[in-house]
Amino acid sequence: MKLLVVEDERMLCDTIAKSLHHAGYEVDCCYDGAEALERLLIEQYDLIVLDLHLPGMDGMEVLERLRQTDAETKVLILSARSQVADKVAGLDAGANDYLEKPFHLQELAARVRSLTRRQFIQQSTALVCGGISFDTRTREALVNGKQIRLTRKEKGILEYLLLHQGRPISQEELMEHVLESNANPFSNVVRMHISSLRKKLREAGGQEYIQAVWGIGFRLDAEGAGKS
Ligand code: CA
User: Fold this and answer.
1) 35 CA to centre of ligand 1 in angstroms
2) Which of the two ends of the chain, N or C, has the fewest CB atoms closer than 10 A to its terminal CB?
3) In what order do the strands lie in the sheet with 2-6?
4) Burial degree of 125 (CB within 10 A; 0-12, 13-18, 19+)
5) How close is the Cα of 106 to the center of ligand 1, in Å?
């Protein structure tokens, strides 16, 4: 999962980014609204943490401009303003959630988890496919009830494939959501992470959960497991 944090108070922005990175997300920071919009044109994010009070173009304008072309990306608004009108305006403009400053970083992380799961109607913090279970809170992966050791990137790939299970995902899409923005787009690093993840899942579960889809990419599928 890749997140963008837009906040002009640099220390706060960096603190939020660090805490969300620690929670397992790839996080980019942006300190003003215009720059945020530019980034949103070229990068794919799963969720944006957006401060309303920004110099120049404020958060509300960023949100409104984003929603003209993108209804999918989740937006969580941050603001020190406690007026009801601001919350209503933000939610009406297409924000998915609202957090008032000051807030606890743990609460922010919990809301981010909840928002990124919401479209998949998942009740618990766990994502499941066949014998695989991945806890989005502890970031532990189990196969047939036994914990397996995955690297940070392997966890990111597994989480993304679990959230989109059954659908073929291209290597480019995985790169956009799992690697940092400054990663070299021509490297085969995603392929290496996937092949290592497939091997670990295969060894732990005795079946091929991640299918290579010819010409497209990869698909995680409980039903397809076994037929490779
Ligand atoms: Ca601010």
Assistant:
1) 14
2) C
3) 26-30, 2-6, 47-51, 74-79, 97-100
4) middle
5) 20
From CA 128, how far away is CA 97, in angstroms rounded?
Answer: 25
- State in Å: Cα 26 to ligand 1 middle: 22
> What is the CA(8)–ligand 1 centre distance, in A?
5
Q: Which two tokens stand for residue 85?
A: 């009108």
Record the pTM: 0.71
Q: In angstroms, rounded to a whole number, what is the distance separating the alpha carbons of residues 37 and 48? A: 11
Residue 42 Cα to ligand 1 middle (Å): 23
> Omega into 102 within 30° of 0, i.e. cis?
yes
Task: Give the helix/strand (H/E) hosting 64.
Answer: helix 59-69
- pLDDT of 187 above 60: yes
Closest by Cα among 194, 228, 190 to 211: 228
Structural contact between residues 73 and 4, judged by C-beta atoms closer than 8 angstroms: no
Q: Please count the residues of the chain.
A: 228
pLDDT classification of 56: cutoffs 50, 70, 90: confident
